[in-house]
Amino acid sequence: MSPLLESTARALLRRVAVEQAESRLPSLAAAVVRDGSLAWFGSRGLVGEEAPSRDTQYRIGSITKSMVAVVVMRLRDEGRVDLLDPIGKHVPGTPVGEVTVAQLLSHTGGLTAEPPGQWWERTPGVPVEELIARLGPQTSRHRPGRRFHYSNLGFALLGELVARQRGTDWARAVRAEVLQPLGMDRTTTRPSAPHAHGYAVHPWADVLLPEPEHDALAMAPAGQFWSTAADLARWAAFVAGDTGGVLDPATVAEMREPAIVDDGDAWTGGFGLGLQLARAGGRRLAGHTGSMPGFLATVWADPGDRTGVLFLTNSTSGMSRTFLGEMLAVLDEHEPRMPAEWRPSAAEAGLLELTGPWYWGPSAYALRLLPDRGLSLAPIGAAGRASRFVAQDDGTWLGLDGYYAGERLSVVRGADGSVSHLDLNTFVFTRTPYDPAAEVPGGVDEGGWRG
Question: Which Gene3D superfamilies did the record assign (predicted)?
Answer without folding.
Answer: DD-peptidase/beta-lactamase superfamily
